[in-house]
Specification:
The chain is mainly beta. It has strands spanning 4-7, 10-13, 18-24, 33-39, 46-51, 57-59, 67-72, 77-82, 91-98, 116-119, 123-128. The strands form 2 sheets. Strands 2, 4, 5, 6, 9, 10 and 11 form a 7-stranded mixed sheet that branches. The chain has a 4-stranded antiparallel sheet with strand order 1-3-8-7, with no helix packed on it. A hairpin with a 4-residue loop joins strand 7 (67-72) and strand 8 (77-82). The radius of gyration is 14 Å and the shape is globular. It starts with a strand and ends with a strand.
Length: 129
């Protein structure tokens, strides 16, 4: 059973940066697509960024230019570098694994949580103004 473990969350002031990590025990990043999602209190879960197994990436409009998703296959770790953080970024952040790239006619498949089947436990990010 593949497990995903997020880390790196915390509290920062607006304008600050954090880097989230998602570690797994197996070498899944070469075969699975990976995504970062977040859920704020009282809001629905939303896709933040994704990276397909071929290395292609995509971002939600709200984080473009501020967040960067990457992975290190040798370390079996997925990252989300978050810069210029805003209070609106406050949420629990989750990493997930799946195969949304199979839905190649669906341009934002990577941001659709329904297409992922393995999830981490989440890490809290709090941004104060």
């Amino acid at each position: 059973q593949v497990q995903l473990v997020e880390s790196g969350g915390g509290s920062v002031q607006a304008g600050g940066s954090l880097r989230l990590s998602c570690a797994t025990s197996g070498s899944i990043y070469t075969t699975y697509d990976m995504g970062w999602f977040r859920q704020a209190p009282g809001k629905e879960r939303e896709g933040v960024a994704y990276i397909y197994s071929d290395g292609s990436t995509g971002y939600a409009d709200s984080v473009k230019g501020r967040f960067t998703i990457s992975k290190d296959n040798d370390k079996n770790t997925l990252y989300l570098q978050m810069n210029s953080l805003e209070p609106e970024d406050t949420a629990i952040y989750y990493c997930a694994a799946g195969r949304p790239s199979r839905f190649y006619r669906y341009p934002t498949a990577g941001l659709d949580g329904r297409l992922y089947n393995i999830w981490g436990q989440g890490t809290q990010v709090t941004v104060s103004s």
